[in-house]
Write a structure and sequence with these properties.
mainly alpha; two-stranded antiparallel sheet; 4 strands; flat
């Protein structure tokens, strides 16, 4: 769809909504209205416009770019790297590249378990400083439950 079938204001409004701006606010930025209620009503009507819906659908389409490898291509290429026999001047196999390729393939495949992040580290001390007094240290118990160190 060519964007010449909708106005510049409509394009700006649609792009803002596509970026996550609330429709009423986006409408107020591109059109002169006196109240947010009027802007919300007008934005709702505009979003039902067939030309706007078509333009929004175009914005949501995944971009196809032949210069960017697809996930399948990346997996195939990394698989080639993982299987390559690379040797140094003395004929010794070098596996560092293979291991990195296999590790990257594992990441792409979601083979690694999610990592836990301890957000309590330093938090107790900081809270104590903010309160102006010492507070008991919070630590992780055996099953992940928090304890107050007593």
């Amino acid at each position: 769809m060519a964007t010449d079938t909708i106005t510049k204001k409509q394009i700006g409004f649609t792009l803002d909504v596509f970026k996550g701006v609330p429709p009423g606010k986006a409408y107020m930025q591109h059109y002169q209205v006196k109240t947010m209620g009027a802007a919300d009503a007008c934005a709702s009507r505009l979003l039902k416009n067939d030309r706007i819906k078509t333009y929004m659908a175009e914005l949501r389409k995944p971009e196809v770019d032949d210069t960017i490898m697809s996930v399948k291509e990346r997996k195939q290429r990394l698989s080639q790297f993982g299987r390559e026999d690379i040797t140094n001047d003395k004929g010794t196999l070098i596996r560092h590249g293979n291991i990195l390729a296999i590790a990257e393939l594992s990441k792409l495949g979601g083979d690694y378990a999610a990592q836990k992040v301890d957000i309590t580290e330093g938090l107790t001390e900081l809270l104590g400083q903010l309160r102006g007094k010492a507070v008991p240290q919070i630590t992780q118990g055996e099953k992940g439950e928090e304890t107050d160190g007593s």
